[in-house]
Structure formats: structure tokens, C-alpha cells
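Quick one, C-alpha cells below:
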């Protein structure tokens, strides 16, 4: 089974729910804790919602796919190959050269304002990985690492924005005592038939580079067609009104995403939003992501409306084949534990709708 088919599964998941959590139940828009299967029936449909009442569907019976949709560039194929090879990269902790722009660097730091350490401003000696020029830190924090070598300890001086969102940090000058632990360097294997046969035949089903490239191209074309169909049904259907419950679900999923990261950092939700996500409050987080959450909610509503209109349904027997096709395993017990069976049924239902739309689509 070819794991590049995860491209399609991921595309579906991201379109359906932009910020899926991973099973935590510590946050929600109301006082009730949120779980991923909240508001979803065992058959994957939304509880108490007849989607056809809220949507004027487009003609989805034979969607025309433009020829250019299948035009996948060699660069796109190579990007997928690079991602796969990166999984087999050998990492080396370099300590004998200076940090340069673009480097992945492991550092420790302790931040202080007016000589007083502040909450959330320290790695507590556990180290954290940053990429110069990519990781988002305040001011020019990371640029000041350039030119220093692993083993060096020095001060980084920055100024918090006036609207940073933390009262005792807004507009303040801060000093971070930084230690560079090491630079992470990666070397990827050479792409040869021997490498493909030895490393990728079991996981992906490939034995040669040619097979690998052809299959990736096909998967990218399928993903492009899926994306076109998703955009088509949303762009050509009319949402009469959006049930509040579906929008709130997307918002709760988004907050759960951030809550899980906050838990990993050992921080409170509000503190994490201010320090790392750039949102002063939960309300600001919801406001700035309202458009994306609304799009996801609209997509979910339209997908269920098509399922209702076309008589498409799923059973528990459809779940294992879905995971076998897209995740190379029929054991979905961990996913069921983290997300709940209703959530999985909804994912499988929407994939079945997409399969139906693709099977009836025509080429231009």
C-alpha cells in the first residue's frame, strides 16, 4: 500500500476541519469540555442537522475537470520525493562551526526584564529547536544567534511589541541569556533503484525510481482533482444559513489544537496564545480565524448535504478499508481512542462523497 495516498487523506482532513486536535478535552467555547466527536452521530452526520435545509446545492452530477488540473510539475513531484528522503536523513549535531542563516539550532535561554525573570521566558534547560529565518520569535532574537558557535553563552537583547498582549512585557526591553547547544545538520540518501527497493518497497510498494515518480505523479493528480472538486462544490453551492453548532465545532477544534501545544510546553492556554501564537486573548484568536473556520464549517455542511441528497452513507465496516488505503493499516484503534468513532465515521463519509463525485466527474 502506497503511503503517498496520505496526500489525499490529509487534504480531506484539512479541508473538513482546519485545526483537528488530538483527543484532549480541556477547552471549548462553552464551559463544557470539548471532544472531537461532540455533536456527531454514530453514522458520521451532524446531530439534529438536516444539511439540505441550509444549502442550495450545485449540479454535482458530472463536474467537468479542466485539463490543466492534471498538469503537475516536475518540481512538485521532486518536492514529494524530497519529503520522503528526509525521513531517511541522518542527523548530525555540529559543534565546530558558527551558526548561519537558515540553520536549525538547539538553544537554551532565560529571559528577564529589568533583571527579573518572567513566566514563559525560559526553556528550563530542556533545549528547544529553532530555524534561523523561519521560526517566529520576537524582534530579531534569532538573527542575533548568527555568527556564534555551539558552546557559547551570550545575551540577546530584544524589545517586546507595544501590543504584545502581556501587561508586564508590552514595549519592554528584555535580555535573554542564551546558550547554543548544537547545530543540526542533515544528510539525505542518494535516490537510486537500490535505495527504493531496499527502503520503500514494503511501505510504498515501489521497487524502482521510475515507479516511485509515476506513483507520486498519479497521487498528486488525484489530489489536485480532489481539491478542484472541493472548491467547485463550495463555490457553486449557496449556503442559505450556517448552523451555529458546526461553526462552534470548528472553533473548538482550533482551540484544541492550540491547547495541545500549550500542554506540550507546560503552559496555560492564555499564556501560550500570548507568548507563542501571537494572540492577546481567546477572543482575538476566534475573531482572526473566523473566516477560515466559517469556510471549514461551510465545507462540512455541503458535504453532508450531498450525502443526504445522493443517499450516501457509511457503516463501521467502511472504516478499516479507509485506514488501510490511506494510512497503510487497518488498525485504527488509536485514532478511535483519540478522536472517537463518530469523528472517524464523518471523515470516512466525506471521503466516500468525494469518491462519488470523482467517479462521476468528466474531463474537459
Amino acid at each position: 500500500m502506497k503511503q503517498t495516498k496520505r496526500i489525499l487523506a490529509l487534504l480531506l482532513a484539512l479541508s473538513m476541519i482546519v485545526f483537528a486536535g488530538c483527543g484532549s478535552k480541556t477547552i471549548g467555547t462553552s464551559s463544557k469540555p470539548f471532544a472531537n466527536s461532540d455533536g456527531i452521530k454514530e453514522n458520521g452526520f451532524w446531530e439534529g442537522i438536516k444539511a439540505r435545509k441550509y444549502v442550495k446545492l450545485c449540479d454535482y452530477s458530472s463536474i467537468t475537470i479542466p485539463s490543466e488540473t492534471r498538469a503537475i510539475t516536475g518540481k512538485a513531484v521532486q518536492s514529494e520525493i524530497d519529503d520522503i528522503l528526509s525521513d531517511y536523513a541522518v542527523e548530525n549535531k555540529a559543534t565546530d562551526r558558527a551558526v548561519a542563516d537558515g540553520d536549525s539550532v538547539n538553544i537554551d535561554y532565560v529571559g528577564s526584564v529589568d533583571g527579573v525573570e518572567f513566566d514563559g521566558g525560559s526553556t528550563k534547560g530542556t533545549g528547544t529547536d529553532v530555524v534561523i529565518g523561519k521560526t517566529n520569535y520576537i524582534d530579531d532574537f534569532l538573527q542575533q544567534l548568527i555568527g556564534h558557535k555551539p558552546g557559547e553563552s551570550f545575551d540577546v537583547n530584544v524589545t517586546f511589541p507595544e501590543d504584545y498582549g502581556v501587561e508586564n512585557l508590552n514595549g519592554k526591553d528584555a535580555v535573554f541569556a542564551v546558550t547554543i547547544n548544537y547545530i543540526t545538520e542533515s544528510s539525505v540518501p542518494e535516490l537510486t533503484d537500490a535505495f527504493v527497493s531496499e527502503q520503500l518497497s514494503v511501505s510504498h510498494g515501489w521497487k524502482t525510481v521510475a515507479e516511485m515518480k509515476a506513483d507520486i505523479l498519479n497521487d498528486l493528480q488525484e489530489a489536485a482533482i480532489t481539491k478542484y472538486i472541493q472548491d467547485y462544490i463550495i463555490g457553486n453551492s449557496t449556503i442559505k444559513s450556517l448552523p451555529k453548532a458546526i461553526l462552534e465545532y470548528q472553533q473548538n477544534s482550533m482551540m484544541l489544537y492550540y491547547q495541545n501545544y500549550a500542554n506540550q510546553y507546560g503552559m496555560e492556554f492564555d499564556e501560550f496564545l500570548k507568548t507563542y501564537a501571537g494572540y492577546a486573548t481567546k477572543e482575538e484568536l476566534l475573531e482572526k480565524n473566523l473566516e477560515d473556520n466559517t469556510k471549514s464549517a461551510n465545507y462540512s455542511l455541503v458535504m453532508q448535504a450531498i450525502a443526504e441528497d445522493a443517499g450516501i452513507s457509511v457503516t463501521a465496516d467502511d472504516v478499516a478499508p479507509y485506514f488501510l488505503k490511506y494510512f497503510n493499516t487497518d488498525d485504527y484503534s488509536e485514532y478511535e481512542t483519540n478522536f472517537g468513532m463518530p469523528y472517524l465515521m464523518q471523515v470516512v463519509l466525506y471521503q466516500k462523497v468525494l469518491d462519488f463525485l470523482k467517479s462521476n466527474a468528466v474531463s474537459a
